[in-house]
Specification:
This protein is 72% helix and 2% strand. It has 459 residues and is mainly α. It has a two-stranded antiparallel ribbon with strand order 1-2. Helix 5 runs parallel beside helix 7 and helix 19 packs antiparallel against helix 20. The relative contact order is 0.09.
C-alpha cells in the first residue's frame, strides 16, 4: 500500500512539474509575440476575466445542484420531518466547496501563468478565487434553505457581468498598457477580507444545514444520475436536455399566446414568441460580440474567423431549442401537416438569421482584407451549422453491429458524439483558415449550405 501511495505521489509531482514548465514556456512564447500595448493589457486582464467567470460558473452550478444534495438511495430513507441532519449533510457541503475551490484555483493558476503574472500576484489571485468560491458555496447553502431565488440569481449574474465589463474594456482599448507589478500589497488586504467573508459564509452555511428539507436535498439528487447516464453515452446534447428539463420543472406555467401565421410559418412564430418570453437568449448572444473584439485587441490575427464561429456556436445554442424539440419528438412532427424536413427547416430560420446578423456585427474584429463582411457572414453561418449539427445528432444505435472493447460492446457512433458540432465547425471554417479571402469565405458558405441541406432534409 505504501508503495502505491509513493508511486501515486511521485507521478502527481512529476506530471505537475511538467505541466508547470509547459505553461511557463507557452507564457514566455506568448509574451515575445505580444508587443502592442493593447495586447499586453489583454494578457494582464485575462486572469481576472477567467477568475470572475470561474466564480460565476461555480455559483451557477451550486444553484443548479442545490448545492447540497443526496443520492436517490439516501433520499429514499431520509426523513421528511425537520430533524437534525447536519452530520449527514456537512461532509457533502464541505466536499463540494473544496472541489469547487480547487478546480477554480487550478484554472486561474494556469491562466495567470500563461499571462506572465508575477508569482506573488498570481498566488494571491488564486487564493482570492478559492476563498470566493468557498464563500459562495456557503451563501448558496443559506439560499437553498431560505428559498430566496432572487439573491442567488444576482450572485450568479454579478461575476459574469463584471467579467463581461472587463472584456468590454479590453475591446474598447481601456486596458491598453495595463500591467501587474511584482509588489501588489493591496492584494493582501483583498485576500484578508475574502478570508473573513468566506469564513462567515461557511459558518452560516453549516448552521443552516439542519434546516434543509427533504425536498431541497432530494431534488438535485435526481438530476445527478440523469446527467451521469447522459454522459455515459458521450452525448452533450442529451445533457442539455436533462439540465433544461430540470430548470423548467420548478417554474410555473408560462403565459400562453395565440399562434399566428399558417403552414411552416407557424413554427417560425413559435420561435419568435419564445424569444419574446425569454429575451435573455438574444441578450447573451449580443453580449458575446465583445469576445471577438477583445481577441482582436489581443492580436489573434486570421484565426479570428474560427473564434467568431466558436463563440457564436456556444452563445447561440439556446436559440435552437425548437429544433431540438422537433428532433426529439417524432410524435409531434407526425401531427404537423408537412414533412419533418419542412418542420426542421422552419425551426432553423430564426437561429440562422440571428447568427448571420451576429456574424456581420463582428466584421470590424476581423483583420483588414477585401470582403470582410462576407468572411464575417460565413463565420456566423458556420456557427449556425455547427449548432444545427449539435441539436440534430442522433443517439447511439445499439441495433447496428457493435465494436468490441474492454468495456464491452460499443456502438460505432458513440465516440463521435463528444465531437458533434465541433467537427462541422472545423470543416466549414477550414476554407477560410486556409485561404483568408473572399474565395475562402465563398467555399465556407457553400459547405454550410450543403451540410444544412443534409441535416435538415434527411428523414
Amino acid at each position: 500500500m505504501l508503495q502505491d501511495v509513493y508511486v501515486g505521489v511521485f507521478a502527481a509531482v512529476m506530471l505537475g512539474a511538467v505541466l508547470v514548465n509547459v505553461l511557463i514556456g507557452l507564457g514566455d512564447l506568448a509574451g515575445q509575440g505580444c508587443t502592442t500595448a493593447s495586447c499586453r493589457g489583454a494578457r494582464t486582464v485575462a486572469p481576472l476575466v477567467v477568475a470572475l467567470g470561474s466564480l460565476g460558473v461555480v455559483v451557477s452550478l451550486a444553484r443548479l445542484l442545490g448545492p447540497v444534495f443526496v443520492s436517490p438511495a439516501v433520499a429514499s430513507w431520509l426523513a421528511s420531518t425537520p430533524v437534525a441532519r447536519r452530520g449527514l449533510l456537512r461532509p457533502r457541503a464541505v466536499a463540494g466547496g473544496i472541489a469547487a475551490s480547487l478546480v477554480a484555483a487550478a484554472v486561474v493558476a494556469g491562466t495567470a501563468t500563461l499571462s506572465g503574472w508575477p508569482l506573488l500576484a498570481g498566488v494571491l489571485l488564486v487564493v482570492a478565487v478559492a476563498l470566493a468560491c468557498a464563500g459562495s458555496i456557503g451563501l448558496a447553502v443559506v439560499v437553498q434553505v431560505t428559498g430566496w431565488r432572487r439573491p442567488q440569481r444576482l450572485l450568479a449574474a454579478l461575476p459574469m457581468l463584471l467579467a463581461w465589463l472587463l472584456t468590454l474594456g479590453v475591446a474598447a482599448g481601456v486596458t491598453a498598457g495595463a500591467t501587474v507589478g511584482p509588489q501588489q500589497t493591496w492584494w493582501v488586504a483583498v485576500v484578508v477580507v475574502l478570508l473573513a467573508l468566506a469564513a462567515a459564509s461557511a459558518l452560516l452555511g453549516v448552521r443552516a444545514l439542519d434546516r434543509l428539507r427533504h425536498s431541497d436535498v432530494a431534488r438535485a439528487g435526481r438530476l445527478v444520475p440523469a446527467i451521469s447516464g447522459a454522459l455515459a453515452s458521450l452525448d452533450l446534447s442529451l445533457v442539455w436536455d436533462v439540465v433544461t428539463d430540470h430548470q423548467w420543472r420548478d417554474r410555473a406555467a408560462v403565459r400562453p399566446r395565440r399562434g399566428r401565421w399558417t403552414g411552416w410559418g407557424a413554427v417560425v412564430w413559435v420561435d419568435l414568441a419564445r424569444l419574446r418570453r425569454s429575451p435573455a437568449r438574444l441578450a447573451r448572444l449580443a453580449a458575446a460580440v465583445t469576445v471577438p473584439y477583445a481577441a482582436h485587441a489581443a492580436g489573434v490575427g486570421e484565426v479570428m474567423v474560427l473564434l467568431i464561429a466558436l463563440t457564436g456556436f456556444v452563445a447561440g445554442l439556446p436559440l435552437l431549442s425548437s429544433l431540438r424539440v422537433i428532433e426529439r419528438s417524432p410524435g409531434l412532427v407526425r401531427m404537423l401537416p408537412y414533412p419533418a424536413r419542412v418542420a426542421r427547416a422552419a425551426a432553423a430560420v430564426v437561429p440562422l438569421v440571428s447568427l448571420a446578423v451576429w456574424g456581420l456585427a463582428s466584421t470590424a474584429a476581423l483583420p483588414a482584407v477585401d470582403g470582410r463582411p462576407l468572411l464575417a457572414l460565413a463565420a456566423g453561418l458556420c456557427a449556425a451549422t455547427a449548432g444545427v449539427r449539435w441539436m440534430t445528432g442522433r443517439p447511439p444505435d445499439y441495433e447496428k453491429p457493435l465494436v468490441s472493447t474492454p468495456a464491452g460492446g460499443v456502438p460505432t457512433n458513440l465516440y463521435g458524439s463528444i465531437a458533434r458540432g465541433f467537427d462541422v465547425l472545423l470543416i466549414t471554417s477550414a476554407p477560410m483558415l486556409l485561404s483568408y479571402s473572399t474565395k475562402g469565405a465563398a467555399w465556407s458558405v457553400g459547405l454550410c449550405v450543403v451540410v444544412l441541406s443534409f441535416l435538415l432534409g434527411r428523414d
